[in-house]
Amino acid sequence: MRRTRLVFAPQDAQAPPAYLLVNESGEPVGRGEQPVLAEAAAVPTTVVLVVPGAEAVAHWLHLPTRAEPQARAAAALLLAEETAFDEPMHLALGPLEPDGHRLVVAVAEARMRAWLDLARTYGLAPDAVIPDHLLLPEPQDEGPVAVAIGGTLAVRGPRRAFACEPGLAPVLLGDRAPQVLDGEAAERLLAEGASRLPLDLRQGAFAPADRTRPARRDLVRAAALAGLLLFSPAVLDAAEAARLNLAAGRLEREAAQHLAAVLPKGAAVSDPAVQAEAALQRAEPAARLFAALAG
Fold first, then answer.
1. pTM, two decimal places
2. What is the per-residue pLDDT across 224-236, written as a single tens digit (0 to 9) for each?
3. CA trace torsion 85, 89, 94, 98 (10° rounding)
């Protein structure tokens, strides 16, 4: 079992992040201001960076394709039709649901970089990044729930999640006013949501580097390539020799063809060099006679 440390990125860039520590049983056991470059935890701890939901818009889109690149491209097209983005956006996709819908979160690339830089400043390497409204577990049968986080209200309902000013929640939800939790009840709800996050914003260009050990097949391929590099001079010499042999054979065939044209009709070409010398000797007297007559 591992502990979980929820680190809340503030909306105000000058403010320090807060944290909520959850033990192995899912119980909140610590809270406060996140220290800078804190010492490594003695107990294995999962770090979840919670970012302001007001800057991470969640949609549930019908994307029945299982191919990730196609689903991502379709999501970008659907969102572009209803939202005019003023800056480059980053999309994160949740798993495919039984009815073909997927959770899609759109966030500015610049904000995503800023949040990850903030984590590095505090010596943190997040295991996941999640908007605060998606940290709340989705209610199954009841109405929407809400928790005040950093001056805004994070609201979660069935296939609905957003963050807004507290006074706007009733307007956005209509007659389904959320149940607003605070204190220990709010912390327990956040701790529950941390155990089953619906997605991780670290996707695409922000996906963590794959640090897994290479497979045996990859090691064999690397060894083969290394062997080729090691013996490359010999390989190149052999290839050059083969090329020269082919060229020499071609020249011999061409010489034989030219020699056959000057030999007596029906004569076979057996030794091109000897036969060519003999043909020249036979032609020499006639050549001298022709030169004398021409002079």
1. 0.70
2. 444 443 444 544 4
3. 40
